[in-house]
Structures are given as structure tokens and as C-alpha cells.
Amino acid sequence: MRPPLLAFNQNGIYCEAADVYLDPWKPVDKAIISHGHADHSRYGHKKYITHHSNVPLIKHRLGEIEVSGKGWNESFTINGVKFSFHPAGHIIGSAQIRVEHQGEVWVFTGDYKTEDDGIAVPYEPVKCHTFITECTFGLPAFKWIPQDKVFEDINNWWQENRDNGQTSILFGYSLGKAQRLLKYLDTSIGQIYTHGAIENMTEVVRELVVMPPTTRITRETKKEEIKGNIVIAPPSAHGSTWIRKMVPYVTGSASGWMTFRGARRRRAIDKGFVLSDHCDWQGLLQSIKATGCEKVICTHGYSDIFSRYLREQGYDARTEETQYEGELGQLEADKEKESE
């Protein structure tokens, strides 16, 4: 029996035939990277390969690295193994990684979502024999509403706060979620201010996507300037001394975890908006069915529950441990030292 095309070991997801890793969590010689979040694109690899739109994002986070970019559906071969990137719809530059060798096809999703957010290239199903899927929100309780309705609620919330003389502070991860929020804010209500971590990343993203004007909050920014406007900040800013300049303010968070009221209370958030860059329960199931796969490997999230359900549906499904963190995976990057 030949070894599996992709295997999980202490360093990451390993393709022995090509001697290359997919989104490794420990330093390796050659890494193929699905997207720019900190849990999937780590520092220390000798060579990086990723989609070309992800190159500036990971270089911003990781500094001067040896990285090459590929296009969508562009095949490249390493030691006789064929690889290609396909849209994952998760964030800007996010890709599924297709691996083909000796008639066998595996697809590693990284992180993905099926709703077209108008920023990331929309998710495309890729036919395969084995599908490696995240399960961040792999419970039936997670069912997203269309983003148009979510942004209507966000803009109404901002308007109400402005009418009450309060500043709106909306938390979202600096890469992906923040730009999605910025894209759909109604600037007729007021101005958009940003935390330094958000602004630094958005400056990179502006080279790829049209974004509304924003103003960086600095030490010189006066409290009176911000009042009644909206501030986009990373979750790591909540409870910090930086936020005192915004008083009086109301806080909001945009996350899939806002499905549960308890999550909002634990995070001391005034208002929760259910908005995720990952699949909900139905999105996961529909994606798996569209691949035509026989085997499913479930990683980070509710992997045990989800894989058990898949087995009940007739799939050859199992779980594997990884160091990916789903929607929490951007927290460490947002904690990295950034100028105000």
C-alpha cells in the first residue's frame, strides 16, 4: 500500500512525493501557503509558494521572505506532483490547494466560505477524491444570514449611535474581516477611523481592492474629531488604554461567534453582528458534496462532531489535529506590535 498523498506530522501537512508542506506550523524548507492569516502563514520557512495576490499580504506580515506567486488554476509541478491554487473565498488572496499525483487528487481548503463577499475571489468547488476541510463552525446552530442584511444592521447601529452622540467601535481582525467591514460602511453617516493595525494592513489591500477613505487614529487625533463616527479596530484593542480616547463609545463585534449571546457577554461587547469569513453548517455540507469526494479529513473547529455526521451520511470521514485556529487565528497577528 502506498503512503497517503498528504500526511499530517509534527510540522504540518506533508506531501512526501514532492517533499513540500502545506501551511506548515513549524519552519520547513518549502511551504505552499493557502492564505495570509497568522495560523496558516508562519515565519521561518526557507521558501514560500502562494497565490500572487497573497504575496504582498504575507510579505507585510513576515518581512523579506523568499516567495513566489502563482495564478488561479495555474499548474506547477514539484518532483512529479502537480499543484494548483483555486479560489477559497475566505479573504483576499485565499486559496484551496489542489494536489494531484498518479491519478489521485486531494484538495486542502485552508479556510474558506461560500458566500461571495464582493472582495475575495468567490469560492469554486474543485473535484477530488479526498477533501481536507476546516470545521470552524461545524454545528447546525451556525446558519449565516446574507451579508446585505448584516451591513444594513451595522449601518443602522452606527446611525443610532451617532444620533446619541456616541462613537461606534467595531472590532474585526486586521486582515480580511476589517476590509470586509470597511467596504460596506455607509460613509454618508460619517467618517471611518482606523486603529494602526487595521490601517497598515488596509494600505496593502488598497493595491488589490478599492476601499473607502479612512483616517488613522494617532496620538494627535482629538477625541472631538472621532465623536459620532465609526472606528474599526482589532479585537486586541478592546480594553486597552488606546480605546479611552473614544469615550463615550458603544462597542460592536462582527464574528460568527456572535451567533451565541454568551460569546458577546464574555467579550463584554455591546452589540454582536453575525458575520463570518468561514462556512456555516450548510456551506460546509454543500461544498463537500460539490467536490464529489469519497474521503473527508476534518481539521480545526468542531471536527469530531462534523466528521461523525459525515460518516452517518456515508462518507469515509476522520479528523486530524492541526495548529490552525479558525476565526481565532488572526488574533496573534493583531497583537503584533503596530504603530497607532
From TrEMBL:
Gene3D superfamilies: 3.40.50.10890, Ribonuclease Z/Hydroxyacylglutathione hydrolase-like. The keyword Lyase does not apply. Residues 321-340 are annotated as: Disordered. It is an enzyme of class 3 (hydrolase). SUPFAM superfamilies: Metallo-hydrolase/oxidoreductase. Keywords: Exonuclease, Hydrolase, Ligase, Nuclease. GO terms for molecular function: exonuclease activity; ligase activity. Signal peptide: none annotated. Its EC number is 3.1.-.-. PANTHER family: BLL1145 PROTEIN, CLEAVAGE AND POLYADENYLATION SPECIFICITY FACTOR FAMILY MEMBER. This is Ligase-associated DNA damage response exonuclease. The lineage of its organism: Bacteria, Pseudomonadati, Bacteroidota, Flavobacteriia, Flavobacteriales.
